[in-house]
Design brief:
The complex is a heterodimer of chains A (371) and B (508). Chain A contains 16 helices and six strands. Chain A has 371 residues and is mainly alpha-helical. Chain A has a single domain, classed as ABC transporter involved in vitamin B12 uptake, BtuC (Orthogonal Bundle), CATH 1.10.3470. A two-stranded antiparallel sheet of chain A has the order 1-2. In chain A, strand 4 and strand 5 form a beta hairpin. Chain B has 18 helices and 22 strands. In chain B, the strands form five sheets. In chain B, strands 6-9-10-3-11-12 form a six-stranded mixed sheet, with helices on both faces. In chain B, strands 18-19-20-15-21-22 form a six-stranded mixed sheet, sandwiched between helices. In chain B, strand 21 and strand 22 form a beta hairpin. In chain B, helix 8 packs across helix 9 and helix 13 runs parallel beside helix 15. The chains are: A mainly alpha (371), B alpha/beta (508). Chains A and B meet through helix 10 and helix 11 of A and strand 1, strand 2, strand 4, strand 12 and helix 8 of B.
Chain lengths: 371, 508
């Protein structure tokens, strides 16, 4: 009974949000998320079940928010990198480095949690800055420049942990990925804080305009006096920072730092989240909230497959199919074609002769301005 | 019109908010060069795009040799015998000439490309234009003019009946245009129907048999070129009476606004290896200095050095007496220098951003990241310039890509006027834009001058340089060969300076 009411309330809120977003780019991303949730409402028993335990909310939707935090954090950095026309493949490896640094300082060196976390974040920013120097300073193609750290980063993380999987029980570290705030997972607060920070950084300053300008036409941006190097350096450093936070959340989730597996393949999920969020891989216009919703969508998909007991070996297949469908839905030309198939009567090619015959062609002017 | 090659009746096409074509009629016979004239946004490009199947039509019909056609893609149009060569050479620079000519229709044998056949076919296609080139060389090894001819050869390779040339001459110099016209006359004699779109009125009178004028998506009329006085053509295009146009054209630059004799910008021996030989240049506040010379004579290179796009490796530049050194446009902008580049699409507009964002960009850059202009301030600024410069756009939130060339140029001018520059370098500001916008921009330049700006004006159209400038610097082969002062400036004098091999009044 309670579930029934809360579900209804959920859909009313969701529906109004969707209605409010009509005509915006993000509409399709939120709509896709809605369709996925609607599917679960009817076909995945227990997906919409909410439960209160110890004053905390539990349920599949809460799981999505909690588990999706990592991809959402990554996508905030990734969306800015992609907007400049680049890509950051190293975020998964940077997550592993951040996890390794924090747990090593915490467990092996017995340093306080606050220090360990801060140090991990600083190292992540440095890792991002390294990418930034390669791309902006030396003009190396982003995919190659970040591939270096993607491959080498896990090795660095292994060096830091000395090949061990470091377990920890420090309450502060554990709270990061498992704690609750206002009855909801703390990670949600973290994501929202980061969204706020990103929003402030790019939309309250002119950096967002510069990013879009550089991504859309780098040459013309230079002629307008924009310091493209600075802009690019900044987005890679920020992406490193986001990856560091995601890495801390990831190792906190499992209370250990496993350099081999933390953040594995998450860079691909983050890129997908950005694309699903409506930002083009060619750069230019970007959508911060879109990227977050994209991340949420991908996590919902993962959780759905999990809840429906799809074996993790084959789950990439349905995942890929759904993502292709979403990308097609966002494509303007696909939508027009679809509309043409659905309503063949509205063929864009009008039947010839549907317009009354025109005046005959003459060799004189019918202009009266010269009088 | 029984023997029409192409007949278009009542062609209509609207886009959201605009009727781009409103019941337009058009007819073309084989062996005829038919010019399509009109201001930017008059519907010329839309007409071509509908004709070649880039856009679907809303209404109307097209007949080719009496048969109704409705191509749905440029490829289909090519199959019917309608080939188009666009303003920008749409070829692939890194492929060979032969590959470019045959691209998409390579002769194959069991799916394997037959390279010798490609080369032969390319040679045959070029022979139609009396061109003999090494077809195995990279396309980019040839000049733009030759590339243009290669593009035409490619278009004709598909047994074309109808050739459409959209602004084919805008990047060519006088001799190259002459060469192109010779080939076009030959093709015309061979019975090909040619639609020719250009902004150069001289060229229309040189080459075309008929002129169809469009304005605001409507056909104004079709005229025999020899019976239509130029002034009337212009009046048809801009929709103003003849005497109004005459008044516009006679407005000449008057001097006496030069405020001080001390130059604002003083360049001495400015040079860069492979781009410009040592050059002296002074520009005073309230003065328009024209930079004349053939394409490739070093005009754009001079602008790039002054604006810090390229770094000079010799010489000094002083702004208001202080020596300055620009290693990036950013540094130049700090000193109040602005530049609208020759190539609007590559170095000017940010295509997918809005008119508002494009206008505020330079000002925002100068303010830095932290002092962001609020959206309200941006809107106010954009609206002010949209009104002041008469930028035709449905709203300030329109993406710039969707604006016509003239309006894009005005957006760029607005971007720089927003920073209130002291020296404005205008590199071909009127290229590829229509008569109306051209005269508006010319008037704007004169009013800027009267406000005490220093202007460096670069243009291929001598007439324009003469009309605008108080002083003209003539370049040839990347060096300054002459400087004409007030009273000496005329088209003839500039041409003589360009042509006279004995003139070499360089400083340094």
């Amino acid at each position: 009974m309670i579930d029934w009411v809360s579900d209804l309330l959920f859909w009313i809120v969701f529906g109004s949000i969707l209605l409010f977003l009509r005509g915006r780019r993000i509409f399709w991303t939120v709509g896709a998320l809605g369709m996925l949730l609607l599917f679960n409402q009817f076909f995945t028993p227990g997906f919409f079940h909410l439960q209160v335990l110890d004053g905390h909310l539990y349920g599949s939707r809460i799981d999505v928010l909690n588990q999706g935090a990592k991809v959402m954090l990554l996508s905030l950095g990734m969306v800015l990198v992609i907007a400049t026309g680049g890509v950051d493949l190293s975020v998964g490896a940077v997550m592993a480095i951040a996890a390794a640094v924090s747990s090593r300082l915490l467990v092996t060196e017995h340093l306080p949690a606050g220090f360990a976390i801060a140090a991990a974040l600083v190292v992540s920013i440095l890792a991002g800055a390294w990418n930034g120097v390669l791309v902006a300073g030396f003009g190396i193609q982003p995919i190659v420049a970040t591939l270096v750290l993607m491959v080498a980063g896990r090795g660095v993380a292994q060096l830091i942990t000395e090949g061990q999987i470091i377990n920890f029980l420090d309450p502060t570290m554990v709270y990061l990925g498992n704690g609750h705030l206002f009855a909801l997972p703390f990670t949600l607060t973290l994501v929202l804080l980061m969204l706020g920070l990103a929003f402030f950084l790019v939309r309250r300053t002119a950096v967002g305009l510069f990013i879009e300008s550089v991504g859309d036409n780098a040459e013309a941006s230079r002629y307008s006096g924009i310091n493209a190097r600075q802009v690019k350096f900044l987005v890679y450093a920020f992406s490193g920072f986001c990856a560091g936070l995601a890495g801390l959340v990831a190792c906190s989730n499992i209370k250990s730092a496993d350099a081999n597996n933390i953040g594995l393949y998450l860079e691909l999920d983050a890129i997908l989240a950005v694309v699903v969020g409506g930002t083009s891989l060619q750069g230019g216009r970007f959508y911060l909230v879109g990227a977050l919703v994209g991340g949420l969508f991908i996590q919902t998909l993962t959780t759905t497959l999990y809840a429906r007991n799809v074996s993790s070996d084959i789950s990439p297949v349905p995942k890929a199919l759904v993502i292709i469908a979403v990308c097609l839905l966002q494509s303007e030309s696909f939508r027009t074609r679809l509309a043409r198939v659905v309503r063949p009567s509205e063929r864009v090619l009008q039947p010839i002769g549907s317009r009354p015959p025109q005046k005959p062609i003459t060799m004189t002017s019918h202009d009266s301005t010269e009088s | 019109m029984a023997n029409s090659l192409l007949e278009i009746v009542g062609l209509t096409k609207s886009f959201p908010g605009v009727t781009a074509l409103d019941g337009v009629d058009f007819a073309l016979r084989g062996g005829e060069i038919h010019a399509l004239m009109g201001e930017n946004g008059a519907g010329k490009s839309t007409l071509i795009k509908v004709l070649t199947g880039v856009f679907p039509r809303d209404a109307g019909e097209t007949r080719l040799e009496g048969k109704i056609i409705a191509p749905r893609s440029p490829r289909e149009a090519e199959g019917l015998g309608i080939s188009t060569v666009y303003q920008e050479v749409n070829l692939i620079p890194h492929l060979s000439v032969a590959e470019n000519i045959c691209l998409g229709r390579q002769p194959t044998w069991l799916g394997v490309i037959r390279w010798p056949a490609i080369a032969n076919r390319a040679r045959a296609a070029l022979a139609r234009l009396d061109l003999s080139l090494d077809v195995n060389r990279q396309l980019s090894a040839y000049s733009i003019a030759v590339q243009q001819l290669i593009a035409i050869a490619r278009a004709l390779d598909i047994s074309a009946k109808l050739l459409i040339l959209d602004e084919p001459t805008s990047s060519l110099d006088r001799n190259e245009v002459e060469e192109l016209f010779k080939k076009l006359r030959k093709l015309r004699a061979g019975g090909l129907g040619i639609i020719f779109i250009t902004h150069f009125i001289d060229q229309v009178y040189e080459i075309s048999d008929l002129i169809t004028v469009l304005r605001n998506g409507c056909r104004i009329g079709c005229f025999a070129t020899k019976d239509l006085p130029r002034i009337k053509l212009v009046s048809h295009m801009i929709g103003k009476a003849v005497h109004q146009v005459e008044a516009l054209e006679q407005k000449r630059a008057s001097a006496a606004s030069i405020r001080s004799e001390a130059p604002m910008l003083e360049a001495r021996g400015l040079a860069r290896k492979g781009s410009l030989r040592p050059l002296d240049l002074d520009i005073r506040p309230g003065e328009v200095v024209g930079l004349a010379g053939l394409l490739g004579s070093g005009r754009t290179e001079t602008a790039k050095l002054l604006f810090g796009v390229d770094r000079a490796d010799q010489g000094t530049v002083r702004m208001n007496g202080r020596e300055v050194r620009f290693d990036s446009p950013r540094a130049a902008i700090r000193y109040g220098i602005a530049l609208t580049p020759e190539d609007r699409k590559v170095a000017g507009i940010i295509p997918n951003l809005t008119v508002r964002e494009n206008i505020v960009l330079a000002l925002q850059t100068r303010r830095g990241s932290w002092r962001r202009l609020s959206v309200a301030e941006q809107a106010k600024l954009a609206d002010r310039f949209i009104q002041a410069l008469g930028i035709k756009t449905p709203s300030r939130e329109q993406t710039v890509r969707n604006l016509s060339g003239g309006n894009q140029q005005k957006v760029l001018l607005a971007r720089w006027l927003a920073i209130e520059p002291k020296l404005f370098i205008l590199d071909e500001p009127t290229r590829g834009i229509d008569v109306g916008a051209k005269s508006e921009i010319e008037r704007l330049i004169q009013s800027l001058r009267q406000d005490g700006l220093a202007v460096l004006f670069i243009s291929s159209e001598l007439e324009e340089v003469v009309r605008q400038s108080q002083r003209v610097v003539v370049l040839r082969d990347r060096r300054k060969v002459d400087e004409l002062r007030e009273g000496e400036i005329s088209e003839g004098a500039i041409m003589q300076s360009i042509a006279n091999p004995n003139l070499e009044r360089t400083g340094a």
